[in-house]
Automatic annotation (TrEMBL):
The gene is trmB. It comes from Candidatus Vallotiella hemipterorum. This is tRNA (guanine-N(7)-)-methyltransferase. It holds the Pfam family Methyltransf_4. It comes from the Bacteria. The keyword Transferase applies. Its EC number is 2.1.1.33.
């Protein structure tokens, strides 16, 4: 399932999550036991062979930090011609997503339960990913914790290196301060370009990203939500 091709490693990074013991429900545990062997991929320090892992050759979309998996399955059900690789560290979320995969009868999702930075760095080849979704990552809202935010320039550079020319990166957050940081970070990566109609700005929520119940509740309370969509420049544009 996996090529034994080692990839250069990077220095240790500050994790954007904390290790918590979260209790599995009986349905989540059952899904992990029954469906894990089919849909869950092991983390390894080697490149992933997408065609073998999914049983077909199709565009690859990353879903980083998918939570309980509802958004992931909704998008994957809309886009059956794409392969979706979901990355999540918390086991209950993995179990919940596996259960949803079975309920929706989807075959275009695979899951890795591990730190996303290490997965992207070690398992994904350069110029091999067609799109990446990072929706509502932990904002670490206290200023002293901002260093733990996932969207930092080193990770943006790493993720951009895995995108194909013309591939996209779609982020969303409901914290304005984090949205501003995301915007600054992505604009600092020269291989990415903002597709917003307004330079240095955000986009309206694309139709393919479903609105979560928490997002809907926040909007009713007057909270904002910010979507960002960047495209990797064509090689000729980067080199010029």
């Amino acid at each position: 399932m996996i090529h034994s091709i080692p990839i250069h490693t990077t220095p240790p990074h500050i994790r954007s999550f904390v290790t918590r013991v979260r209790r599995l429900s009986s349905t989540q545990r059952d899904a992990l036991e029954r469906l894990g062997p089919q849909f869950k991929l092991p983390y390894m320090n080697t490149q992933l062979d997408y065609k073998i892992s999914f049983g077909r050759d199709a565009p690859l979309i990353l879903e980083i930090g998918f939570g309980m998996g509802t958004t992931t399955v909704d998008i994957a059900a809309q886009r059956l011609s794409d392969n979706f690789l979901g990355i999540e560290v918390y086991e209950p979320g993995v179990g919940a997503l596996l259960k949803l995969i079975e309920e929706r009868q989807l075959s275009n999702i695979r899951v890795i339960q591990h730190d996303a930075v290490q997965v992207v760095n070690h398992m994904l080849a350069r110029d091999s990913v067609d799109g990446a979704h990072i929706f509502f990552p932990d904002p670490w809202h206290k200023a002293r914790h901002h260093k733990r935010r996932l969207i930092q320039l080193p990770f943006a550079k790493l993720l951009a290196s895995r995108l194909r020319a013309g591939g996209y990166l779609h982020l969303a957050t409901d914290w304005q301060n984090y949205a501003e940081q995301m915007l600054n970070v992505l604009h600092a990566e020269p291989t990415l370009v903002n597709i917003s109609n307004h330079e240095n700005s955000y986009i309206l929520r694309p139709d393919y990203r479903p609105m979560t119940k928490f997002e809907r509740r926040g909007l009713c309370l007057g909270h904002g939500v910010w979507d960002l969509l960047f495209i990797k420049r064509l090689e000729s544009s980067v080199s010029s």
